[in-house]
Structure formats: structure tokens, C-alpha cells
Amino acid sequence: MVKNMNVDDFVNNFFKNAEKIGYNIEVCNRGEARGKRQIDFGNKKLHELHIRMLYPMLIENGIDFSPASFNEIVRGRPCSIKGFREISATVLIK
């Protein structure tokens, strides 16, 4: 399903569904993602640029990606894999 969705649609649906599930959506206040949306997974955050970078991995593997693949793209955020997978699954099944 995601193969028919462009990256902008995926990112927008990702944040919309994350909020519906109950995740806290914030605006990033620093770094290259300043002013962009980010999601707080408790210990770590993923911002909009991270989600965009992870999109090609989802096109290729769906939610069955390996933690190693995730960590190659977004280093230092292994605590966010579970939440990312949970939210992505809600976008992919639409």
C-alpha cells in the first residue's frame, strides 16, 4: 500500500495517526529539523526529517524491517523502533 503513497502523504498520515494513538507531537526547537514536527517516544524523539529518511526502508520492507536497518538510517534511537513500527502499521493498512 505504501508504494502508492508519496513521502509527503506518508509523513502527514504518520503524524496524524500518531496523535490519534496518543503520542505527543511537538515542534522541534533545534538543529536541522527546527520548526518541524517531532514525536516523543519517551526516551527518544523522531522528527519529520527522520520519518522522511525512513520512508524508503518502509517501501522496501514494510513494517518487517530489521532493527539494524532502522539504526543505519536513524542512529542512536533504538527506543523509538517499537513506536515507529506501531504508527507505520496504521498508515500502511489504510
Mean pLDDT: 90
**How large, in whole angstroms, is the Cα Rg?**
12 Å
| β-strand amount | 5-15%
The secondary-structure class comes to mainly alpha
- End-to-end Cα distance, whole Å, is 8 Å
Q: Helix fraction?
A: 40-55%
Q: SSE string, helix = H, strand = E? A: HEEEHHH
Count of distinct structural domains: 1
Could you give a short account of the major beta sheet?
3 strands, antiparallel
DSSP strand tally: 3
Q: Estimate the global geometry from the Cα principal axes.
A: globular
Task: Characterise this structure.
- By secondary structure, the protein is mainly α.
- It has one domain.
- 51% of the residues lie in helices and 12% in strands.
- The protein is built from four helices and three strands; from the N terminus they run H-E-E-E-H-H-H.
- A three-stranded antiparallel sheet has the order 1-2-3.
- Strand 2 and strand 3 form a beta hairpin.
- The termini are close together.
What keywords describe this structure?
51% helix, mainly alpha, 94 residues, 3 strands, three-stranded antiparallel beta sheet
Layout: helices, strands, pairs:
Layout: H1 7-21, E1 24-27, E2 37-40, E3 45-47, H2 48-61, H3 67-73, H4 81-92
Antiparallel strand pairs: 1-2, 2-3
Helix pairs in contact: 1-2, 1-4
Give a concise summary:
Helix content is 51%, strand content 12%. The protein is mainly alpha-helical and 94 residues long.
